Amino acid sequence: MNHQLAELHRADTRRSFLTRTSVGLGSAALASLLSPSLLAAPSDGAVGFPHFAPKAKRVIYLFMSGGPSQIDLFDEKPKLAELHGQELPASVRGMQRVTLMTRNQGQFLVAGSQFKFHKHGESGQELCEMLPHIGKIADDIAIIRSMHTDPINHDPAVNFTQTGSGIAGRPTLGSWLSYGLGSENKNLPDFIVLLSGGGGQPVVSRYWSNGFLPSKFQGVQFRSQGDPVLYLSNPPGIDQSTRKSLIDGVNELNRLKHDSLADPEIQARINSFELAYRMQTSVPDLMDISQEPKSVQEQYGAQPGQSSFANNCLLARRLAERGVRFIQLYHRDWDHHADLPNRMRQQCPQTDQASAALVKDLKDRGMLDDTLIIWGGEFGRTTYNQGPLKPGSYGRDHHPRCYSIWLAGGGIKGGITIGKTDDFGYNIVEDGVHVHDLQATILHLMGLDHEKLTYRFQGRDFRLTDISGKIVQKILA
Predict the structure, then answer these.
(1) How many CA atoms lie within 13 A of 284 on its CB side?
(2) Which pTM value belongs to this model?
(3) Which of 219, 231, 440, 470 has its CA 20 to 30 A from that of 239?
(4) What is the pLDDT of residues 18-66, one digit of tens each?
(5) DSSP labels for 9-37?
(6) Angle in degrees, CA 191, 195, 198, rounded to 5
(7) How many angstroms separate the CA atoms of 3 and 265, rounded?
């Protein structure tokens, strides 16, 4: 028995040695053959440097969860007011899909917007009266009125916007950027998520998932109350030096295991422990927006200590200043299937001022030129009313066929509107922009070729834009 145990130990020792040497030397040799630059320029990211000169260094994505109504915000359709209450012609709807919520309602009555539109700035951008603050930055933003997507329901549509696929499990946009470019701040995550809004569709953690990329590229949610990140504070009886000793001890064990197995997830765990320790000193100061001058807080409409979109916009600027690569703000409550006018009157003031303040604040600080800002949801809303059409009130169902978003900064040409929809706001008639086109454009502005940024998984090279996507040249400065 002792002889057998000794032989097993020798075999395990030989196996461990061969594993370490073959994986280490083989990986290094293969990396040098496939991409010598990876050895010459080590980085936290897979690529580690852009494919070409970038226009933007970072992205702030203001995601309006639920699908804002383009007809009531960015794409005025006077004809709908003329036809209000009449049946939408079947020729306009064509063979397009309709959700289960309106499929059997019998009538598809046109609902004209109750809101007025005004021209803003030297560019004459047309915006809803509910967006007076965004109107003041009209010359800095590019409006796309011809966005379209594939899914017709919320969860797959958000997945599609974030990952390029309606099926969960693929890496999100922020993870792809982290994977491709690495970090600019060793004391903060590359990809940070902030949430606001109390209702509407749920916002789930897979919307900032790393998918099949290594876990170090996953987004990190920061909370507005309590510890910004769970378990960031030391528990009772543990001081900083003790915590450092604990982390060093755990990481030493992890390194021994990593040397034996060469599992990249073990290295990711080591990195996460070390980052968490550094965040203990960097994050509390970062999250304290009371340090900002009163004038800045008022500009955003922010109130320290509360949870709001305004607070998160101000935090986004502070994160951008510290080199965070991708900052995602999710604001809920845009899912207006009923009583849309009244709900818009509640929702727009929560987002209009802070969105505009973020653009203006970055511009005043000389940061807008290299910060890309995106504002929009997962799809748009229908021309026809959902449910009974009442005086002064209507609802709108999901409409992936055409919707509007806006972008600013980071290589975007301000003061322009691209894309055109028909008189009913139901079909695109000029310059359609698919979600994959938007994703390709975002990567391009960050210096990445969307066709070259790939990751091999289960025998296939995956990319954010799947097998399509073209850069939207008209919005580039």
Answers:
(1) 10
(2) 0.86
(3) 219
(4) 444 444 444 434 443 444 333 333 346 666 679 999 999 999 999 999 9
(5) HHHHHHHHHHHHHHHHHHHHHHHHHH-HH
(6) 165
(7) 36
